[in-house]
């Protein structure tokens, strides 16, 4: 049976200490200014956070083969416990930026991009979603046509994380590159370095939450990159990105656990010290029972998340199946993200009027939580995947 090792718990303490010292004192100001803290990324790299699943030959700490995905989830949870934007910066930086290159890139591509990404000197984005192709990712309209020794890319992407920072080095995008024998679009993955002519990063979104996270729309107009920038095999980009999302769902679950844990801690402390009618409000069952329910949500979310992460690590050892990991990832993502949204609602209610004030962290967590049910596959998509995993007939 899975459990976190002592090494994992020791690592948790290291990341928690980093988050408390490097993030917590500044996050309220960063959030108000919608400021992406570029200088924080190399510090995260120095701590080894971007290299947890990357082999040593590219600057990571994983040794031969795949690394410890569970450690990555621990790091995401602990950063997310202090701020969700910083947690998603790591989650997307590894899961959506590094992993596609690590998994599908050739040796030249890995040597070109991974050392800087692992060190935190650079970030990479993952361009899948489009204005007219969200959950229906197969409806990609962006096209890439071969012209001599180059791909000519035209189209647009939406809601792309880590795509417009001062240190973003590359965005991997899906694009139609032809037609399959059955008439469906052949979708490929192509790496487009920042600064490539014809590649425009649109102004940052004005978002409900995740104010400290970098998120942009992207436009490609006759954007030319070498044919060698194809990531993996031509026509396999859609399958590659679906596999990438499977892993990302576990990481988002870890981010949700951090959110719920923070809400539990904040609301419990407040219930012990807030005096109403001459006694702490935590004395009242109306408060204490809500916090008890919240504790159950946190425990269940953490268990589901780390079971999925453990299965992912076991998969690399050949002891688990892809189907088993996909099913566990969907369950963890569905439960943990919906629990996180409930946790922020409960915590805000416990804080009463103060919970509506931006000076209290629960207000930020309340704003940040909703996207957890949307990104990396909506709750509806997760239910569809879980039902499919049960072997139910499909339409």
Summarize the structure.
The chain has 395 residues and is of the alpha+beta class.
Uncertain runs = none
CATH topology of the largest domain, what is it called?
Butyryl-CoA Dehydrogenase, subunit A, domain 3
CATH first level of the largest domain: Mainly Alpha
Give the % helix.
40-55%
Named at the architecture level, the CATH assignment of the largest domain is Up-down Bundle
In spatial order, strands of the major sheet run 1-4-5-8
Secondary-structure element string: HHHHHHEEEEEEEEHEEHHHH
Number of helices: 11
Q: Largest sheet, if any?
A: 4 strands, mixed
Total number of domains: 3
Percent of sequence in beta strands: 15-25%
Radius of gyration: 21 Å
Distance between the termini: 36 Å
What is the CATH homologous superfamily assignment of the largest domain?
Answer: Butyryl-CoA Dehydrogenase, subunit A, domain 3
Verbal overview:
- By secondary structure, the protein is of the alpha+beta class.
- It folds into three domains: 6-123, Butyryl-Coa Dehydrogenase, subunit A, domain 1 (Orthogonal Bundle), CATH 1.10.540.10; 126-235, Butyryl-CoA Dehydrogenase, subunit A, domain 2 (Beta Barrel); 238-389, Butyryl-CoA Dehydrogenase, subunit A, domain 3 (Up-down Bundle).
- The chain is 50% helix and 16% strand.
- It has eleven helices and ten strands.
- The protein has helices spanning 6-23, 27-33, 40-46, 69-82, 84-104, 107-119, 237-273, 285-316, 322-351, 361-369, 379-389; strands at residues 123-127, 143-147, 150-161, 168-179, 185-193, 199-201, 215-226, 230-231, 275-276, 279-280.
- The strands form three sheets. The chain has a four-stranded mixed β-sheet, covered by helices on one side. A four-stranded antiparallel β-sheet has the order 2-3-7-6, covered by helices on one side.
- Strand 9 (275-276) and strand 10 form a beta hairpin.
- Helix 5 (84-104) packs antiparallel against helix 7 and helix 7 packs antiparallel against helix 8 (285-316).
- 50% of the residues are buried.
């Amino acid at each position: 049976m899975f459990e976190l090792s002592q090494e994992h718990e020791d690592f948790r303490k290291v990341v928690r200490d980093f988050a408390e010292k490097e993030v917590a004192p500044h996050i309220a100001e960063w959030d108000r200014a919608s400021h992406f803290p570029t200088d924080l990324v190399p510090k995260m790299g120095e701590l080894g956070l971007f290299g947890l699943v990357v082999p040593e030959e590219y600057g990571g700490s994983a040794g031969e083969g795949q690394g410890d995905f569970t450690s990555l989830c621990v790091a995401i949870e602990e950063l997310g416990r202090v701020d969700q934007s910083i947690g998603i910066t790591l989650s997307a930086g590894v899961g959506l930026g590094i992993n596609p290159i690590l998994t599908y890139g050739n040796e030249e591509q890995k040597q070109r991009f991974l050392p800087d990404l692992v060190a935190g000197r650079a970030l990479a984005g993952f361009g899948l979603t489009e204005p007219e192709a969200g959950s229906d990712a197969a409806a990609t309209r962006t096209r890439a046509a071969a012209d001599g020794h180059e791909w000519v890319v035209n189209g647009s992407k939406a809601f792309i994380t880590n795509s417009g920072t001062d240190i973003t080095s590359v965005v991997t995008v899906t694009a139609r590159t032809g037609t399959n024998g059955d008439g469906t679009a052949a979708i490929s993955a192509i790496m487009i370095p920042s600064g490539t002519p014809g590649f425009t990063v649109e102004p940052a979104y004005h978002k409900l939450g995740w104010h400290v996270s970098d998120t942009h729309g992207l436009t490609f107009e006759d954007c030319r990159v070498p044919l060698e920038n194809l990531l993996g095999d031509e026509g396999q980009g859609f399958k590659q990105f679906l596999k990438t999302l499977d892993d990302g769902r576990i990481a988002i679950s870890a981010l949700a656990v951090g959110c719920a844990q923070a809400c539990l801690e904040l609301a419990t402390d407040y219930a012990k010290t807030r005096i109403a009618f001459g006694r702490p409000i935590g004395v009242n069952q109306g408060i204490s029972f809500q916090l008890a329910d919240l504790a159950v949500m946190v425990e269940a979310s953490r268990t589901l998340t780390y079971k999925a992460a453990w299965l992912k690590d076991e998969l690399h050892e050949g002891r688990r199946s892809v189907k088993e990991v996909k099913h566990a990832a969907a369950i963890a993502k569905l439960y943990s993200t919906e629990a996180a949204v409930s946790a922020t609602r409960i915590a805000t209610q416990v804080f009463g009027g103060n919970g509506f004030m931006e000076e209290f962290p629960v207000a930020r967590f309340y704003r940040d939580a909703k996207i957890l049910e949307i990104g990396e596959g909506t709750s509806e998509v997760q239910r569809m995947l879980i039902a499919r995993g049960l072997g139910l007939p499909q339409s």
